[in-house]
Design a protein that fits this description.
GO terms for molecular function: ATP binding; ATP hydrolysis activity. This protein has 286 residues and is α/β, with parallel strands linked by helices. The protein contains eleven helices and seven strands. The strands form two sheets. It has a five-stranded parallel sheet with strand order 2-3-4-1-5, sandwiched between helices. Helix 8 runs parallel beside helix 10 (240-256) and helix 10 (240-256) crosses helix 11 (278-285). It is elongated, with a radius of gyration of 23 Å. The protein binds adenosine-5'-triphosphate. Adenosine-5'-triphosphate is lined by residues 20-24, 63-69, 176, 208, 211, 240-241, 244.
């Protein structure tokens, strides 16, 4: 009969298998243990041990590997409202002051809700995509010398440092270039949990292929000869996004068989029986 801890918001019905993310089970449970375990502690325990909830994590690794997918699923798992997404290069393009104002408002909203609702406050997630873009600028005088990067990073730092009492904020930074991220942002109390999201291995690629072909398989559109295990072998060094692209491209080849091009292009009636075959995947691979 213990009351849930403050901000203990993890959805009880949450299942990793339903997330549509392939090959990242280990990474996800690791992030969970390192970054969110304290949010399911009994009330007061975190304070007793003297720890604070993690308020910032950094996901890094090659493009198209599922960082955005993970960040959004973390939001769902924690039952948070729709995350606010900030994009590094976009921030630099906005006129000076606007980005800081946006960040200030995000934190102010979270603070207001925490004051009004206390433990009942929902979690506010901020996803900062391509974080390296603003860090590159810091102190370098690059980017036309606007100093926008500098001030955005400083703004983030001061906000993160100022949220001692705020348990309802989570900042998720994402980058392909961890080496570019300002050291100051990676310290304890800031983006303190770092997780590398790498290219999927063969098992991961098999899972991703299954995810992206699940609709066609369920609707009888996938040919009997499609060999997912074989495709996983032949997609070494593919990212999840590239595997998604492969499936789309194979479907497109299958569709093309049903398009008659004459004076007018028309869809053949046989389109209803269309099947995506192994040969379409092989053609897409080529
Ligand atoms: P970037 O660094 O370029 O922003 P990212 O790592 O954030 O890339 P996502 O945007 O999450 O990559 O992935 C792009 C798309 O690729 C996803 O919408 C999804 O369709 C597919 N994808 C990538 N990784 C996976 C995965 N592990 N499982 C299933 N689908 C994936």
């Amino acid at each position: 009969n213990r009351r849930p801890a403050a901000n203990s918001v993890i959805r009880p019905d949450f299942k990793f298998e339903d997330m549509g993310i392939g090959g990242l089970d280990a990474e996800f449970s690791d992030i969970f243990r390192r970054a969110f375990a304290s949010r399911i502690f009994p009330p007061g325990l975190a304070e007793k041990i003297g720890i604070q909830h993690v308020r910032g994590i950094l996901l890094y690794g090659p493009p198209g590997t599922g960082k955005t997918l993970i960040a959004r699923q973390i939001g769902k798992m924690l039952n948070a409202r729709e995350p606010k997404v900030i994009n590094g290069p976009e921030v630099l393009n906005k006129y000076v002051g606007q980005s800081e104002e946006n960040i200030r408002k995000l934190f102010a909203d979270a603070e207001k809700e925490q004051k009004e609702k206390g433990d009942e406050s929902g979690l506010h997630i901020i996803i900062f995509d391509e974080l390296d873009a603003v860090c590159k600028q810091r102190g370098s005088g690059a980017g036309g010398g606007t100093g926008v990067g500098d001030s955005v990073v400083n703004q983030l730092l001061s906000k993160l440092d100022g949220v001692e009492q705020l348990n309802n904020i989570l900042l998720i930074g994402m980058t392909n270039r961890k080496d570019m991220i300002d050291e100051a942002l990676l310290r304890s109390g800031r983006l303190e949990v770092h997780m590398e999201i790498s290219l999927p291995d063969e098992h991961g690629r098999q899972q991703i292929l299954k995810i992206h072909t699940s609709k066609m398989a369920a609707n009888g559109v996938m040919g009997n000869d499609v060999n997912i295990a074989e495709l996983a072998k032949r997609t070494r060094n593919f990212s999840g996004a590239e595997i998604n692209g492969l499936v789309k491209s194979a479907s497109s080849f299958a569709m093309q068989r049903h398009i008659k091009v004459g004076t007018v292009a028309a869809i053949d009636d046989s389109i209803m029986d269309m099947k995506v075959m192994m040969a379409d995947f092989v053609r897409a691979l080529d």
